[in-house]
């Protein structure tokens, strides 16, 4: 860990700080902390000041007075009288600097008697004023019973005239005020710092003065106690006893010193795993508790359990009251909000809740965002954690008595005992969780489950220490270390298992680092599609979203940045080492990935390392000693923290043995940064700074400036948010288009896009999240959970109130938005506002109207002004225009994000049949019918009104439409019908499909077919057509793939030469092969590849038509006629004449069986329809190449084909057979409509 001149670690603590009441300035109300003046003066908050700090400043960690002042006493000063409980409270905090590096603070708040007469009389005056006001406001002329007001006081009793007795009387009461002592340290040794502070406080409150003046101990911790080196333990002296801390080596999990136990007791395993999932997917997370330390413990635990990933966004575990406006941040955040224990959750006005995970820590309660995917193997994961917890006597559903709601004992003091135990003041546990929950049935179940692991849950065993151990810390502390490391190893193991092969998928940049940085945003750094196609199906919903997060991108960037072991990020080094180990243990091919749950095997080893450090302490610091103080200094008064001697504390020892004086400041800073990155999971060394600059996605703000809160600073912060949102929007739209376009380009000339994969769904879901964040930025008043949906509601109400004036086009726009809005409102399956908003976005995208609709929505400026503050994103005109412009680019591609997600809803479809204008379409007498099939189902036979040929019907979502079967019942005098094409339109999404036909339906016409199967294609809609909002689908110009026949005979197709035919076959087969090589979720329509314009059927038709002898006069001969003759030939073949080989015989039999079955079908399909059916069945059963070989040798071929025919050329036939053989490895499933009525 060498850095310049200094090779040993630095100091344990940088500053010792005292905050409290400044008697010079007196009582200053703290307006920013938002307390109202209806509170009694004792309940109000007043400004606290940093009273002293030692030393004045250290160059490697400049003192941030505002931040320290705010976070030491986040609620300001508190006053109490002798009748209130005044237990000291400990909490820790974090200060994140601009560059992302962190400093840790630990503070102990206690109460001291107020000795200043001025302050006491000021408090008395405030009470007189308060009571006078109170009497005026609250005493109605009615009887006394009603005079109870509903203002709540801290004890939960409603405030009535009783308020007076609670008041402060200078002659009778003693006034106390809060004060806090605090350590600012470079690393988070929470347990050690807590002990240091508690022992210092104890020295002031115990009747016997401490052995040495307090200055000696503070000097010792500031200047004489070093940080323990990595992998070592350190012992130093507090006022009353030794204090031990230990630091993991560089090959272990990073330093983490908060009790994981507490988080599981407060929330229970299920909630912790859900919260963990939200954090990994970078939702906004708000923790809510009365205890600052709980907020900190939960936040630090969740981020520590993410190893090897690191939270990349706003991180403020304790949000000072003056920074509440920060909850408006439209970016992912993890923040902690202090509750006063009175207000209900429903009173909490949060700006945005669509993507929010709200955690009420004290009440064991968590509110999750909608559509939260499950963490992979969640049940087995929870079981593995539960087994460990139960071995430590912690019930997996949490210790309910820790949470305020479960034990409504607020008025009793038992709850205080519990929370005191939580704050480490009472050893042992007066309310033992184990006893309380012995009766619990869930526990009984889990106990049974754990029995087989051989862990006994009897309390005696739980607390019995291992006999041969002589650890230097106390039993309880050692158990905290053990539980921490066991739980952390289980969590880390999940990621080593899940990402064991991740290196294979990292895309190394081809250019040098500099140019890679500059183009960072355009670069793909990880092959997500291939990685996901390797994963077990159940993992996909979670993983596809996780791969899109900032933390994953930064992790991969880190990987790309460090080529050799030396400059590797320490966290990455540990992770890669673990991954390599797993790969050695189970050598598996990435393709055989299973979702088998692998339990953690590294626990013992990790525990051993800690145990060894605690048994044998590596370093002992210098003991505190008398300082060179003036006589009479260091005086001590019981109950008061003394005014310390700044002259002895402000300068360290002259020769500092672990920091050479000549080491330049920059090296020391570098050393400090190194030590940060090693264990604080920071991103502030050179590489990470580079990455942050290069990638800089959205939020550059990791923590709000805790200092000057002038309006200009707030405005600047909001401006950063607006820029960040715009940038995020640009990156998201670009990413989504590249995904789409890249894949469409590969498609085989069909304008058909892949059916959505998990990944596409993920991208659209994250776009919906972004829209919700944009719509909730700068909201005036929050209504409902979805800001976007509530805006739509307002818009619709406005439209109803005042009819729109303006051009027809404008009115049309309003109608369309309202029409869509109503559609979504009527979908019974969607229950919540957030769900409705998402459905509306998906539907608008599918209709290619998202940008236009949002523009329309925002064109109502009055409404926008009413709903949003001036700084809101939606009121920044330039940014808003650019944002809409980015969304406009989605119109370039086809999305099915509504159709494919809402699969069970009812959808109206509109059908239009267009018969040929010529050739007597109007005389048609039979009754037509139609049956429509899509990827999700089919309609069954629908009768069509004969003269209208147009109808609308409703049925369950069919998905993308694939085929239409159309026919008639052959009744009446003129049962011949020439159909040009059929159009079907989905009335909700506006997708219109065209099914070209161009052939007769009728006995004795064309191939004598009474029904045909038509294969459809989606028309790329012209937005004008959408605007017309007409009831009938727009007519198309000449159909793209109609077979136009002069004599209506299939033989008049353009004749192709053998080369072109071979090419067509190659293309058709290639299309099918590619189809099967795509991930299942992204395959297009197989029917189109078989029966479409350049599908397999059409290509084989060309093969059999090549060199077919032309019919005499008017008799049409069809390929099917030839196949029937071949069938007859094989059936009547006298077995004795030729003894064919076994193989040949089976082929001939299968061929005859299929032809017979098709001829016997009850359906009235014509000869071409029968040929299509035979090809489809042959492809399904992998028989096509056998049949081609069979027919090439058949004597009937010689009679019916010219000598130049392709089927007679052995070389060509062999190459055709080889091409068709490639289909053998695929399992082809045919759509029901293609093989109806045949069971082979």
UniProtKB/TrEMBL annotation:
Residue span(s) of domain PLAT: 907-1015
Listed GO MF terms: guanyl-nucleotide exchange factor activity; small GTPase binding
Gene Ontology BP, a term: retrograde transport, endosome to Golgi
Keyword terms of this UniProt record: Guanine-nucleotide releasing factor, Membrane, Phosphoprotein, Repeat
Domain RUN: 758-903, 1087-1235
UniProt subcellular location: Membrane
Xref: SMART domains: dDENN, DENN, RUN, uDENN
GO cellular-component term (any): cytosol
Domain UDENN, first and last residues per copy: 30-569
Keyword Amino-acid biosynthesis: no
InterPro entries: cDENN_dom (IPR001194), dDENN_dom (IPR005112), DEN5A/B (IPR047278), DENN_C (IPR043153), PLAT/LH2_dom (IPR001024), PLAT/LH2_dom_sf (IPR036392), PLAT_RAB6IP1 (IPR047277), RUN2_DENND5A (IPR047295)
Superkingdom of the organism of origin: Eukaryota
Main location: membrane
Family of the protein in this entry: Belongs to the RAB6IP1 family.
Protein name, as recorded: DENN domain containing 5A
Source organism per UniProt: Chelydra serpentina
